[in-house]
Each structure stands twice: as structure tokens, then as C-alpha cells.
Write a structure and sequence with these properties.
Blueprint: E1 14-20, E2 26-34, E3 39-41, H1 44-49, H2 60-66, H3 74-91, E4 98-101, E5 107-111, H4 113-116, H5 120-124, E6 165-168, H6 173-176, H7 185-193, H8 200-203, E7 206-214, E8 224-232, E9 244-252, E10 264-271, H9 273-276, E11 282-288, E12 300-302, E13 310-311, E14 335-343, E15 346-354, E16 357-365, E17 384-392, E18 418-427, E19 432-433, E20 440-441, E21 451-452, E22 467-471
Antiparallel strand pairs: 1-2, 2-3, 4-5, 5-6, 7-17, 7-20, 8-14, 8-18, 9-10, 9-17, 10-11, 11-12, 13-16, 14-15, 15-16, 18-19, 18-22, 21-22
């Protein structure tokens, strides 16, 4: 089947979505466009009768099947229809050229990367270096201390030779089957945002472990251009619908300095049943340009939920399930090095195991006009580097039982907890180890729920030049005074 969806802006008026169907006929749907906000308002009835029905996996019956519903109730059918209309609106932003399903069951639609970034080919010809230099100037060729080979874990569907890049199709199974408890799709999507600064109100719904380093200031001549660290990976347990548990790095601006708003580029691993439709671990990215005030195309949002992120050809995009092995308590530990790097006018993200086993996931292009992201304060450097875990609970009167890492407190030590190992701050003049002292906490914390150690070093051990442990079980049933 050949199908092409066009979503091109023209000054002030409308978008036309055109599809070539199996029979060779074409259908067009007029779509009103808010050019200034770059939002697309879609005629639900027209889309459900036309284009959406011809995208593989987009029929209502397909959505119900993906949600494991064989005999749907009227309410489930209605929710599937609402999801179908929502995805049609989402798809109107892109020009899709192909569709694939991964071995893990995730659906990916394929686009020409030049549609997402006109400078794509230029950036591919001038990519960031695979590895940075360790402080002191030596080449950073360290491999994982644990056995893992990344390329073997990349699904073959991503190894295309035509240059197309993938867009993960949202999986809203928990809404369709009713597991989320949301009254309607609007409420469900609002709950998915789950983003916010570490304010008193936001902290009511989230707990953190980790450390933050102010890596740049007006008086410093060397600018921070990224960060990297090794983290061990765990299958996070106990995360209910509506909640999430993650570990990540964030490169951002310091909103408390001179009244500036927070801007961030974030990358990590996340378990979020409502967002991904399962309880597995996924890569995620997030960007924000306005202090987490809103989400939208080139403004802020997760993964590819909003326009902004440009996937790397041949690699998996954010939102993909993390493949390979996971750490076990008292058993083998598996880790990967995550990095975020500003290079050639874009913030790049990378998953790394060794100099011969790594992949770029893609980048956020920086610029004053779309399809770039108009960062004001992190367009040339970042002032804050943070590594942390975060758990979100939408109903925190009794805190969630969601684990962080293995679900054990940091005091349990190596082999039983999460770690952040050898974190480095990239600089325009001499990279630096994450400081041992003088760091701020990553945010609000409740040590009865989750804990982390101080930043430590082991003299003479290059694998532990800097590290800290973190983890916790969340709420413990029946325990007096435990966790919130």
C-alpha cells in the first residue's frame, strides 16, 4: 500500500491532508490551522471516514485489538474512536511514508528527516564526536563495567537504507481499556503531561533523589555544553496507572538567576504505563522552553508528542522500549552511558556502551524560527547539570509503591541499588568531573520513600572517580509514618 500524508502550512489559511489509497483514488480533508501556535484542528468525522481508516493499525478494530479487547463494551469502543480522532490530529503534523511494527509490538511511522529539519543533511555530515575527553585531556574510551552489546539490541526495523527516520505512534491502551480511570481523553492527555518545576505545589506530586551542579555562570569563560554518566538499568516495579518512575539527566538554565525562566533538555529511562501502554522501561526525551508552563510544537513536550525532536537514521527514537539485559539484586549489573551534548547548533542525545557499541537517538535543533526550538538561555550553553530519579504520583495522599531502581534504599550498596557513575560536565575549555561537594539536591525528597548517598570517589579506581547510589521502595503497606 502506498500512502502519503501532507501537512504543509500556507500563509494563514488551511492544510490539506492527501492520501493515496489502495484503490489508487485520493481523498482530501480540509484542516483548519492555527499557524501562530502551529496547532492543527481536525474535523473528527471527516478524518474517521477518510484518511485515518487507511493508515495501518488505525482502524477502531485495530486499536481495540492492541488494547487486548476482543469483545468491547460501548464505552471502550467510544474511547477507541476518540483515540483514533486524536491520533489523526497528531498525524496531520507529519508526512508519513511507511509504517512498521517492532518485535516488541511498538508501531513506528516513517518520515523524511529533512521535513523535520531542513539542515538535517548538513548536521549528518558534521556529527558530534563519539566520546568526549575525560578531565585531564585523555580520550574517554572507557567501556561498560558490565557485559552488554548495544547494536545487537537494536530492532532490525530501524536499520533502513532509505534514510527515513521513525516516529513512535502513541499507545493509549490504558485509556481505551479503562485502566487509567480518566473520565475522557482530554483528562487522560492532561494527566500524561506530568511535567513541572520543582515548586512546592509540584513537589506534592513528585519525589526525587540525585544531585545538581551549577556548571556555568556569567563570570566563567568556559561554557558548559553537555553531560554524560553511566547508569545501571533496572526493570522498575510497582508503577501504577497514572504514575511514573524515571532516572535521567537534565541540562538547563537556572531560573533563579536574574528572573530567567527554566529551559531544559532531558534524557533518560522511564516506566510510565499510561504513556507507553505497558510497565516496561523506555527511553525518553523531554524539552521545555517556558518554565514548564505549557507543551506544544517547538515549545515543550515528551519524545515526539510535539514537534521538535529529530530522530537519527538507523537508530531507535525516544519512547522505544529499552532492550537487552537488566540488573538483578545480587546478580549481574548492566549499565549504559547516557549523554546530552550541544554541537553544531543542536542538543544531541546518545546511548553508549563502548566505542564500538553506541547510537545517537537524535537531536533538538536550536534556532529562532521553526522547525527549530527557540531556546533563549541554553542556545549556546547550559548553566545547570542534574542527574536524578523522579517518581510522580497523581494521588499522593498515600504515596505510590513505585520503585526507584531495584526498590531498595541507597544504603544497600553495589548490586542492590541504582548508581550514577563517572558523571562528566562537558566544557568548551576542559571537561570537568561532577563536583564532590557544593552540589544542590535534585529536588524535594522523602528519605522514608527514596534516598541517595553523597557524591563519592574511590582513590585509584578510574571506574569510580565519581559516583553515588540511589533507590527506594516508595510506600510500604502498613508501615507507620512511612513515606509521606
Amino acid at each position: 500500500m502506498t500512502r502519503t500524508i501532507f501537512a504543509e502550512k500556507n500563509t494563514k489559511l488551511k492544510l490539506v491532508v492527501a492520501l493515496t489509497l489502495l484503490a489508487g483514488c485520493a481523498a482530501e480533508v480540509d484542516v483548519a490551522a492555527d499557524i501562530e501556535a502551529e496547532r492543527v484542528a481536525v474535523s473528527t468525522a471527516a478524518l474517521m471516514a477518510g484518511p485515518v481508516a487507511n493508515i495501518p493499525g488505525m482502524a477502531v478494530a485495530d486499536l481495540l485489538k492492541k488494547a487486548a479487547i476482543s469483545i468491547p463494551t460501548p464505552a471502550q469502543t467510544a474511547r477507541a474512536q476518540a483515540v483514533q480522532a486524536h491520533l489523526a490530529e497528531h498525524f496531520a503534523r507529519y508526512r508519513f511514508l511507511d509504517t512498521s511494527v517492532s518485535a516488541a509490538g511498538q508501531t513506528f511511522d516513517w518520515v523524511d528527516p529533512v521535513d523535520l529539519d531542513p539542515k538535517f543533511n548538513e548536521r549528518m555530515a558534521n556529527k558530534p564526536p563519539t566520546s568526549q575527553l575525560v578531565p585531564g585531556g585523555n580520550s574517554f574510551n572507557e567501556e561498560s563495567v558490565t557485559p552488554l552489546t548495544l547494536p545487537e539490541k537494536i530492532d532490525p526495523i530501524f536499520r533502513r537504507s532509505d534514510g527515513l527516520v521513525p516516529v513512535l505512534r502513541p499507545n493509549l491502551t490504558n485509556f481505551i481499556n479503562g485502566a487509567s480511570g480518566a473520565a475522557n481523553l482530554t483528562e487522560f492527555l492532561a494527566n500524561l503531561k506530568k511535567a513541572g518545576p520543582n515548586t512546592a505545589a509540584a513537589s506534592t506530586f513528585r519525589l526525587y533523589t540525585g544531585w545538581q551542579s551549577q556548571v556555568n555562570s556569567v563570570s566563567n569563560s568556559a561554557l558548559n555544553t553537555g553531560a554524560e554518566a553511566w547508569i545501571n538499568t533496572w526493570k522498575t516495579a510497582g508503577v501504577p496507572s497514572g504514575a511514573f518512575s524515571l532516572v535521567q539527566t537534565s541540562l538547563g538554565s537556572a531560573e533563579s538567576i536574574g528572573g530567567k525562566r527554566t529551559e531544559t533538555v532531558e534524557f533518560g529511562l522511564q516506566t510510565d504505563p499510561d504513556r507507553y501502554g505497558d510497565n516496561l522501561v523506555h527511553y525518553f526525551t523531554y524539552f521545555n522552553t517556558d518554565g514548564y508552563a505549557s507543551q506544544g510544537n517547538y515549545i515543550g513536550g515528551y519524545n515526539q508528542d510535539q514537534l521538535g525532536f529529530v530522530p537519527y537514521p538507523g537508530a531507535f527514537p525516544p519512547g522505544t522500549q529499552v532492550g537487552g539485559n537488566f540488573s538483578t539484586v545480587g546478580g549481574t549489573q548492566y549499565e549504559r552511558r547516557l549523554s546530552v551534548q550541544l554541537y553544531n547548533g543542536a542538543w544531541w542525545v546518545q546511548d553508549f556502551v563502548s566505542p564500538t557499541s553506541f547510537t545517537w537517538l537524535g537531536y533538538y535543533p536550536v534556532g529562532t524560527t521553526s522547525p527549530n526550538i527557540n531556546f533563549q538561555y541554553i542556545k549556546n550553553s547550559a548553566s545547570i547539570a542534574t542527574w536524578y530519579s523522579e517518581v510522580y504520583d497523581p494521588t499522593p495522599s498515600t504515596w505510590t509503591k513505585a520503585d526507584v531502581a531495584a526498590g531498595k534504599f541507597a544504603s544497600a550498596g553495589w548490586g542492590s541499588v541504582g548508581w550514577i557513575r563517572n558523571p562528566i560536565n562537558y566544557r568548551t575549555s576542559g571537561n570537568l568531573w561532577f563536583p564532590l561537594t557544593g552540589n544542590g539536591g535534585a529536588g524535594s525528597n522523602d528519605p522514608l520513600c527514596y534516598t541517595n548517598t553523597a557524591v563519592k570517589t574511590i582513590a585509584g579506581d578510574s571506574t569510580m572517580t565519581r559516583y553515588w547510589y540511589y533507590g527506594g521502595p516508595g510506600y510500604t503497606t502498613g508501615a507507620t509514618g512511612t513515606c509521606k
